[in-house]
Amino acid sequence: MTDIIDLPRKKSAEKDRKFVEALARGLDVLRAFGQQGGGVLGNQDLARITGLPKPTISRMTYTLTKLGYLAYSTQLEKYQLDAGVLALGYAYTSNLHARQIAKPYMEKLAQRTGVSVGLTIRERMSMIYVENCRGDDAQALRMDVGSRLPIITSAAGRAFLAGLPQSEREVVLSVVEEVAGEHWPAMKAGYDAAMRDYEDKGFCTSLGDWDRTVNAVGVPLTLQDGRVMALNCGGPAYLVSKETALESLGPQLIHVAKDILASGV
Predict the structure, then answer these.
(1) Global pTM value
(2) Element containing residue 209 per DSSP (H, E)
């Protein structure tokens, strides 16, 4: 069974002597920029986001800048992601076989319906777009490659969870519950409703749950190597009504997933 979440750092290090703490901290620094929409961050910002001591952050940002993963602005006295990160991301997406196979089917659905159609994969407690296709409608939901969605409230995240074995799903949900705190009951209620939709209709829903102005549906995509990805489609509620999502987009997305899987991903 593959690890589908990141265990708490202390527990992970105790159980695995091969775990390189310094490398993990450096990656946490890079991930912090994704949490802030890829903006500019100073050492104090990074210390707050990651929970790491400021002297550690200073060493990490110095090293990552020397390696070309961060760039330092002397005017702002802050850092931003540099081309080294882009090179890694491009290497991953360009060699992702599922993305290459899925794109033509996604484009056809986007053109036919005028909505946004995305292919996502899990990264920690988020779903990240590795491909997104939009129809001719300029008002279609714009989610670029690299954009994140929350795993528990988005159609893509719920579809991913639906595609997991129960034991793995329960581990993810326990982590989300711990992080969500007092918000968990409302999140769990929306998640449970989406799982009932999946059992009854074959697709998950997020009807204003992730964003109250967005209606979307999602289906899991289980690859031949066992990895689970998720397809989603939807748009602004004034363009995609709940009825449209349930009666039209959901069934069409199921057929697209079947076509993709039949192509040998």
Answers:
(1) 0.79
(2) none
